[in-house]
Amino acid sequence: MSHPPHDQKPFSAMDRRSFLRAGLGGTLFLGTVSVTAGLSGCATAPAGRLNAAETQVDDGYQFQFLTHDDIELFRALLPAIVGPALTEEPEPRRQAIAGTIERIDQGMVRFGPANQKELRKLFDLLNFGLTRVTVARVWSSWPNVTTSEADAFLERWRTSGIGLFNNGYIALTKISNVAFYGHPEHWHLSGYPGPPEWAMNALPQFNNA
Amino acid sequence: MSLTDRIAKGLEAGWKVTDASTLTDNQTHEADVVIIGTGAGGGTTAEILARAGLSVILVEEGRLYYQKDFKMDELTAYASLYQEGMSRVTKDGAIAILQGRCVGGSTTVNWTSSFRTPEPTLNYWADNFGLENLRPEAMKPWFDGREERHTVSPWLTDPNLNNDILRQGCDQLGYSWKVIPRNVKGCWNLGYCGVGCPTNAKQGALTTTIPGALDHDARLFHGLRADKLVMKQDRIDHLVASAMSADTVTPSGVKVHLKARHFVVAASAIGSPGLLLRSDIPDPHNRIGKRSFIHPVNATVARMPEKVDPFYGAPQSIYSDEFNFREGVDGPAGYKLEVPPLHPAMSSGVVPGHGAEQRDNLKQLPWMQSVIALVRDGFHPDSPGGTVSLRDDGSPVLDYPVTDYLWDGLRRAFHTMAEIQFAAGAEQVRLMHLDSPWLNSWSEARAAIDELPMELHRVRLFTAHQMGGCGMGEDPRQSVVNGFGEHHHVSNLSIHDASIFPTSIGANPQLSVYTLAARNSVRLAGKLKG
Predict the structure, then answer these.
(1) Glucose-methanol-choline oxidoreductase C-terminal domain location, by residue (chain B) (predicted)?
(2) CATH among 3.40.630, 3.40.50, 3.30.410, 1.10.10 for B154-183+297-376+403-455
C-alpha cells in the first residue's frame, strides 16, 4: 500500500448516507441481474472446450462453470491482478493467464451450487453492459478494457465504502491469487521450494506412478 | 500403495465401506444406530458403539481420502477436503469458514492442536446452563481417556521459527505462553497437517476411531448426503440420504434410506442444525440454529529480518492465553493467540491485494510470520452469536453479525499481535485489513490500529472453529439437547458434535468434541444395550 494510515479517514456522514443508498441499489442489482442477463441473451452456459482461435492455446480443457463472457472478464482482470508477477513475453504470458483461468474454473466447480449461484450473480453483473457501466463503472466491454482500467476498477471496489463491492473485490482477487500463486509453476514467485524432497522420496504415495 | 496404511489395509481386509457414487439403485439399510458425520464426534461415537457390540452405520457427505491422496498439495486438498471447496463463507460473505468435508471431518485437515476445554468455560456452562455434570473435576477422566486415545501430548520438538516468534515476542513483553499439545504419533515435523497428513502421524478420527469402528463391523457410506430425518409419531423412523456423484457436488439421483433404533447427528455446527431444520424436528422454543459461535479470527503478518520458512514444521506449537480470560470469563472479549502455517495458495488468499503490491507481498513469504487471534464469543450478552438457517435449496448457511463487543476484542487483538511481532524483531507488520499498509514500528502500528475502520469485509475475518446451534442445557426453553447430548423432545435422537456447545470454548475444539462424544456415547451404549 502506498498511502499512510492517516489518509484512511472515516467516511463523512454525507458519504455514508449516499453509500447506504447505493448499497441498497447494489443489493437489488445483484439479486435481479441474473434474470435480466438471462433474458437479454447473455451467454450463461459453461463455455465447454474453447477452440484454438479463442484460447490461442488449445489444450483441450473443458470449462464446466465459466462462460465465454466470464473467460473474457478474467482475461481482462488477470493482467491487473497477477500481471506484474508474469513475464512480459507474450506467449508464456498468454499461457499462464489461460492456465490460471482453467484452474479458476476447476476450483469453482467444487464450490458447489450455493456459492456458484453467488458467483453467477457477480459475473452477470460485471458482464451485462448496463450494470457493467452503471455499477462497476467500466465503460468498455471487457475485451477492450486496458490493464490500467481493470486495475482502476479493482481499486474502486477495494476502497469503496460499500461492503458489497469490497466483497466482490475479495471474491475476484482471492480466487485469482490462489489459482495463480498456488500453482506449482508459480511457487518460485513466493520463494516456496515445494514439499521437502526427502519426504516425497520416502513416502509411498509419491512412489507408485 | 504400501499396505502399512491403516485404511488401505482395512479396505483390503474387507471393511464395509461403500462409495455412494457407485450406487445405481435406491436402497434401504438398517442398524441399531445411524451416525451422521464422521468427524471428531461421529468417529468417536461409532467406535464406542461398535465396540459395545451395536450395529452402526456411518454416513459421510464428503469422500474417503487417505494417505494415497495426501500429497502435500494445497489446490487439490482445498478442492477435495474442505467444505464448498474452501469457498465457504458466512451469509454476507464477510467471514471465511475453514471446515473439513471428508471422512474424519475437520480432524483430517486441522493443525493438530488439542486443548482440554478451559476450566472457566466448563464452570461458566455449569453456572449458566445448568450443566453441573460438566465441571472440570467430573470431566477430567474423560479428557484423560481421549488424550490417550488420540496420543495427545505437548510438542517436545523445537517449535518452527514461525511459532517461536510468538514465544519470543511474549517473552519480551512478559506475556505468558505455552507449548501446544498435539495429537500426533511419529510426526515428521513437515508442516502439511492442513492438506491431509501425508505420513499418518496425525491421530485424528481418520486414523483412530474410524478404523476402530470399521474393525468392529461398522458400515461406512461416504459420498452420501443426509437430507432428512423422517419422524413417525414422536420418534425418528429413518434417514433419507442422497448419493453424490463422483464430482462430489451433484446428487446422482440414487436415494438411500437408513433405518435405526437411534440416530446420532454429528454433522458439525453448520451441518447439524441444517439437518434438524430440514427435518422439521420438534423445536417448540425455536432454538435450532441459534447461538452459533465461531471464534472469530483476525490476523497480522510480519516481515522478519531472518528467513522464517513458515510453510515448514509443525504448524502450531506455541500459544498464548495471556488475553483469553484476563478480563474474566464474561468481561470484554478475550482472545487466544496462535500461529497459522503459510503456504503460497493460503497466503495469497488471506493477504488481501492485487497487482504489483500483491506480487511484492508474496515475494516475502519465506520471511513472513503470522499471528492469529481467536476471539472467545458467546460469554456476554453483547455476543449472542449467529444463526444457521436454510437456503432455498435446503443447504445451511451461517449468518454471523459482528457486534461492537467483538470489534472491540478484534481491535485489541490487532494491537497485541503487532506489539508481539515488533517485540520479536519484525521489520514491518501488516494487518489483514483492506486498508492496512506495511507498518514500520510499534508506535506507527498502534496509531494505525486506532484509526482503521473495524468493518465487515475491510477487516479480513476467518473461522476454523464452528460451535453451537444445537446448544445443550438443562432448560428445554433455552437449549436443544441436555448435558448428555440427548434431544429434549425426540427420544431416539442424540447430537454428538461441537454444535452442542452453549458458547464457544476459548480453545481449538477437537479434544472437547472427542471428550463429550466419548462420555455421551458410553452412556448411550449402556442405554441401547440395557
Answers:
(1) 383-517
(2) 3.30.410
Contact between B432 and B459 under an 8 Å Cβ cutoff? The reply is yes
Q: How far apart are CA B134 and CA B123, in angstroms?
A: 8
B390 touches chain A (CB under 8 A): no
- Name the CATH code of domain B6-112+115-149+192-292+465-529 (choices 3.40.50.300, 3.40.50.1100, 3.50.50.60, 3.30.497.10): 3.50.50.60
CB pair distance less than 8 Å for B74 and A114: no
Say if B357 is an interface residue toward chain A (CB within 8 Å): yes
Contact B436 A5 (CB under 8 A): yes
Q: What is the residue-level pLDDT of chain B in tens, covering all 530 positions?
A: 444 799 999 999 999 999 999 999 999 999 999 999 999 999 999 999 999 999 999 999 999 999 999 999 999 999 999 999 999 999 999 999 999 999 999 999 999 999 999 999 999 999 999 999 999 999 999 999 999 999 999 999 999 999 999 999 999 999 999 999 999 999 999 999 999 999 999 999 999 999 999 999 999 999 999 999 999 999 999 999 999 999 999 999 999 999 999 999 999 999 999 999 999 999 999 999 999 999 999 999 999 999 999 999 999 999 999 999 999 999 999 999 999 999 999 999 999 999 999 999 999 999 999 999 999 999 999 999 999 999 999 999 999 999 999 999 999 999 999 999 999 999 999 999 999 999 999 999 999 999 999 999 999 999 999 999 999 999 999 999 999 999 999 999 999 999 999 999 999 999 999 999 999 999 999 999 98
**Domain spans in chain A, listed from the N-terminal domain onward:** 12-206
3-state helix, strand and coil shares in percent for chain B, rounded to the nearest 5: 35, 25, 40
> What residue spans define the domains of chain B?
6-112+115-149+192-292+465-529, 154-183+297-376+403-455
The whole-angstrom distance between A18's CA and the closest CA on chain B is 17
DSSP state of B133: G
The grid coordinates listed for B454 are 473495524
Q: Collect all residues with Cβ–Cβ distance below 8 Å to A80 and sequence separation of at least 6.
A: A147, A148, A150, A151, A153, A154, B354, B355
Given CB atoms, is B61 within the 8 Å cutoff of chain A? no
Contact status of B384 with chain A (Cβ, < 8 Å): no
Task: Give ipTM to 2 decimals.
Answer: 0.95
Considering CB atoms only, which of B71, B89, B355 is closest to A80?
B355
Judged by CB atoms closer than 8 Å, whether chains meet at A181 and B348 is answered as yes
Q: Tell me if residue B528 falls in helix, strand or coil.
A: helix
How many whole angstroms separate alpha carbon A118 and alpha carbon B87?
11
Q: How far is CA A203 from the centre of its chain?
A: 36
Interface of B with A in 239-258 (CB under 8 A): 247-249
